[in-house]
Amino acid sequence: MDAYLVAILTIAGIYVILALALNLQFGLTGLVNFGVVGFFGLGAYASGIATESFHAPFVGGLAVAMATGAVAGGLLALLCLRLSGDFLAIVTLGFAETVRLIFNNEDWLTGGPKGLLIMTRPVLADFGRTANAWMVLGVVLAGVAVTLALMLRLAGTPYGRVLRAIREDELVPATLGKNVFVYRLQSFVIGSMLMAAAGSLYAHYVQTITPDNFTTPVAILVWMSVIVGGPGNMRGAVVGALAVVTIYEGSRFLTPWLGFLDAEQVSALRFIVIGTVLILVIRFRPEGLLPEPRHTPVMPATRRPALKG
Amino acid sequence: MDVTRRLFLTGSTLAVAAPALLRHGLAQSEPIKIGSLVPLSGGGGPYGPEKVQAHKAVVDLVNKQGGVLGRQVVLISENSETNPEAAVRAARKMIDADRVSAIIGTWASSVTLGIMPLCQEANVVQIFTGSSDTLPNGDKKGLCFNLQPLNKAWSVALADLAAKRGELKIAFAGPKNDFAASMGESFSKALEKVGGKIVGEPLYYNPNQVSYRAEAERLINSGAPALFLAGYVTDLTPVYRELVRGGYQGKVFALSFAVGPQFKQAVGTAANGILHGSPVPPVGKDTYDAYLDLVGLKPNGQVQNPYGCAAYDEINLLLLGIASARSTEGPRIAEHIMKVANGPGARVTTFAQGAKLLAEGKAINYDGASSSADFLPNGMLKSRDFALYEIEGDKDVLLTTTTSDAEQ
User: Fold this and answer.
1) ipTM computed for the complex
2) N or C: which end of chain B has fewer CB within 10 A?
3) How deeply is A159 buried, as exposed, middle or buried, from its count of CB atoms within 10 A (0-12, 13-18, 19+)?
């Protein structure tokens, strides 16, 4: 059981990084990126190819993944960041699907539908199954810590305030002389880079990646994490990702008490529970479990008396 | 309540120690745990239920008769969703939380291959049905057993049929997945052996497309007198529709599981003349009838539950392997599965028969419901019956039954 907890925590850690990256793009800057899984997959494949075909160490693979994610994010952003809201959502969704089709069809590079077998692991040496699992968890948690520190710092700085202002109404920061496009570009690139880093961790953790690992449902879980946790609040994204993974994985343990349902119904029940939680949160707590802290402006000393009528 | 340091220390020590204490207490009479990981949704969705039903039926029967080595068998069932990502998470739970000795029932080759590194690392036996030619490559510890012949065997049977019908120039098309890609390669080799040739490049399309008109046009324009369409029912139906609409006149070869009732209903009389084949259970054999009886079906001379009967063999072989090995450790079980499957020894067809002889110290040879269940040294099936059909007036007319041999 403890080994299973380690496994779940590792997966949860990867989802936390994804949720934090999306929270930077959507929560702070208001960029609707439905292509999370595209960058996640790019990072996984880039890292896998770097370590397996070019014999780079794990750290090299991680660096290649982050560079690939950043370049892909930059190019996509240059193409379509001027599109806003719904349009950006469609383009990023299309991007994720295109990336998946490339993984599936370029056999010479990605192994095609057979997938890529990754032997490089983020461990010091092979100390046996349990020790390896703990070491991988350590690497993932370190990644989470670095990402969380970076995000908390970003969100608190004047830079983060500009991103928030762009989210609320991009005309206002533009009027103040901020180059809105450059800010959105930077936010998108940093987010994409982190998603690719999560992909690299994931690839070296699961060790076999196929195009089927990078389908839209993964992106939906990440979106749920951000929405449930509280868009704009970095700690909220962490809580949200943990909550979603707990519900998703924890529901497996309900099976013995749900004897009247078969495995298929239990796995459907999992999505019903997550969907219900999402609806309840949006209905009763639209700001998420941990809402974004409000920066209440200083009120003028004298207030106008409210009009009665 | 204030949490004092003492309370915190006591509490956390207890919390950390609890799993170890519980494990110590339970270790002696623990049931034998087995993972059943079948596709209950996705591309394999139609076949998962019959597989898990067979696993359950055998486990219930064995438990009623006193279990294996005096221990009860617990079947842990999960849905692979025909998706390696979901399957890996389910397999991790089975291996780490439930501590299963084996994971049986995986159907799609991508799923079987996806969970293979996990199973190899944890010494967990895998018994499955799959046909991608790459399946044996990842098994470094001899823990894998496959109850389905590999694509090579399917291709030889279909190419022979093509040659008999005088179709030696055939174009190949299939969805872009591991199964069809490997089928394309081996079919091309098999066709060359009988003096034929693939026309043009094999065409791989992406499954779940909105329209397949471009693919159909390309196949028609290739001028091939015959086509081999290695699709599943979901993509074969629209491709075939477009071919008919485009006026294609040549012969069409397909795989039986793609041209079942759903396909025939969708395309109607246009299905006439399609030639198809697939591995089949030995209809009429006592073992197959015993399986059908166990899951509440009546033998009717037709192929029923083509994957359920293989699942019946999966669980029987595994339990016999455990009984013979007197151990629940993966490598030991695998070694003994090979022994009980290949013999030499007395023929047995159920767990009860086998366990009785094993207890008397006799050697056994399991004869299965889907095949005689004999394996090559790499765990792949030695041979299995293969049937070839032609569709005539929305019925499958049996042409021949051959026994495919896996050449190594």
Assistant:
1) 0.73
2) N
3) middle
